[in-house]
Please model this.
Amino acid sequence: MRNEMQIQFSALSQNESFARVTVAAFIAQLDPTMDELTEIKTVVSEAVTNAIIHGYEQNPAGIVYISVTIDDDMIDLIIRDNGVGIADIEEARQPLFTTKPDLERSGMGFTIMENFMDKLEVESHPGSGTTIRLIKYVTKKKALCN
Model:
């Protein structure tokens, strides 16, 4: 079965938890394991926080866009901003790389996303924003037999 949802919200840090919970509630229909649910919530947090802090440089006038498509056991998650973009995607994907060390950013956002999802795609152009596409295949729980 295919199902889709889209949301958009202001680039405010307090909206990160809204995004995480909303996506988790939507994908709950797949009955993911607790680990899978935690991983997806973490990935949403990372991507949304990146859009707010790096994409819009904490300008609340920016809008973060999320779309989620469920297709059988696959979750296709897209998080997009129209912010400043990423000058060097390969450099940004390196563990511990951050452009905001003064904000105590760990530089592990892309590494976490890559480790928790089955596929990560990043498209970005300076001055026109960033789109993160994340794909995860949810494990089908096996019925317990007595």
Remarks:
- The mean pLDDT is 88.
- The helical segments are 15-27, 34-55, 89-92, 109-116.
